[in-house]
Design brief:
mainly beta, Lipocalin, 3 domains, five-stranded mixed sheet, four-stranded antiparallel sheet, globular
């Protein structure tokens, strides 16, 4: 793999899509590879910068994961720009929102109907914005009230009780918006927490939110409220073993999570009751993935630990790629697609 990037692979049809930053982050590119052979099919420069700015050692200038819909790929490089590119490599539109990264960007965009929605949380300004997916023109923007505190999370669109909601975590609070208009529906606060990275997860009528640094908590919040629901709709809260970076995953009645320092836990998703806690080894940035009856945990050294889901800890195996890996893996058609610091792998 040329350049540097920690966006996760996206597999659609016969293409595997990634973003990449070359020339010390000054050339921001979209790459497409043939699923069967790994041959490069698309390599297009989307943005060229005079200077890419500072970056956290574990981040990259191409960390948000692209979105593919039909013949269009939506790419987001934070404050450096957002664009729509045809699968042939033709750029359809570009746009840019101004805010200042401190450690680089992280959160990926989401699609809702004809909107592409972005969380833009810098150290100078914080907001959520929706652009027309066909033109890139801004349709709505909602500012956040916590200047000086950044976040890096990907929002989540859910439907509950007949109502669509956009769940977005930020410094000191998570907010549910009407995804069509940006109107705030409800919010849940946490006294500590910023630089949020994990994506919200929704199951059993609860949305699971990681509060972020310095002391992360996991909140399970009922999604049928309005206004400030901090005191009324938090079903349970977990304050130990919570991750800063990997997102949790829910399988059946249980929620699984691995902390950045490698402690995996399994709790009852409805009550927060701890079933087991186990050290997997290594440090983690990638989120665990559930596929074909197994849960896969990929650590930063490229080692994957395979667990059986259940209320008792059961390790099924492990394998190692011997290369740094911070991106979450993709699963498609019986194959794993894994991005490491230097390579893209297809394993099956």
């Amino acid at each position: 793999m040329p350049g540097r990037g920690w966006s996760s692979p996206v597999v659609v049809g016969n293409r595997v899509w990634l973003t990449m930053a070359a020339n010390d982050g000054r050339s921001l590119r979209l790459l497409g590879f043939d699923r069967e052979t790994g041959a490069e099919a698309v390599n297009v420069e989307v943005f060229r910068l005079s200077s890419a700015g500072d970056m956290h050692p574990k981040n990259s200038h191409a960390s948000p994961t692209p979105l593919v819909e039909g013949d269009r790929v939506y790419v987001h490089f934070g404050a450096h720009g957002t664009a729509c590119v045809r699968t042939s490599g033709e750029i359809v539109w570009k746009t840019r929102f101004s805010y200042r990264h401190l450690h680089g960007t992280g959160g990926s965009p989401v699609l809702y109907r004809d909107l592409l929605i972005l969380s833009c949380d810098g150290v100078d300004t914080q907001f959520v914005a929706a652009v027309d997916k066909n033109t890139g023109k801004t349709r709505w923007r909602r500012d956040r009230p916590q200047p000086g505190y950044m976040a890096y999370s990907t929002p989540l669109v859910i439907t509950a009780n007949g109502r669509d909601q956009l769940i977005s975590t930020s410094a000191y609070r998570a907010v549910s918006y009407d995804p069509q208009t940006g109107k705030e529906l409800w919010r849940a606060g946490y006294a500590e927490g910023f630089s949020n990275v994990p994506r919200p997860v929704f199951a059993h009528g609860l949305v699971f939110l990681n509060s972020g640094f310095d002391r992360p908590s996991l909140l399970a919040v009922r999604v049928d409220g309005s206004g400030d629901v901090t005191r009324t709709h938090v079903a349970w809260r977990l304050d130990r073993g919570v991750s800063h970076t990997p997102s949790p995953v829910v399988v059946g009645e249980e929620l699984y999570m691995v902390s950045d320092n490698g402690i995996a836990i399994c709790v009852d998703a409805k009550t927060g009751r701890l079933h087991w806690q186990q050290r997997l080894g290594g440090n983690f940035s990638a989120s665990p993935v559930y596929a074909d009856g197994r849960i896969y945990f990929l650590n930063e050294d490229g080692e994957t630990t395979v667990l059986a889901p259940g209320r008792e800890f059961r390790k099924l195996g492990s394998s190692t790629l011997d290369e740094q890996s911070l991106a979450s893996m993709a699963v498609s058609g019986g194959a794993f697609f894994i991005r490491t610091a230097m390579h893209l792998y297809r394993i099956e």
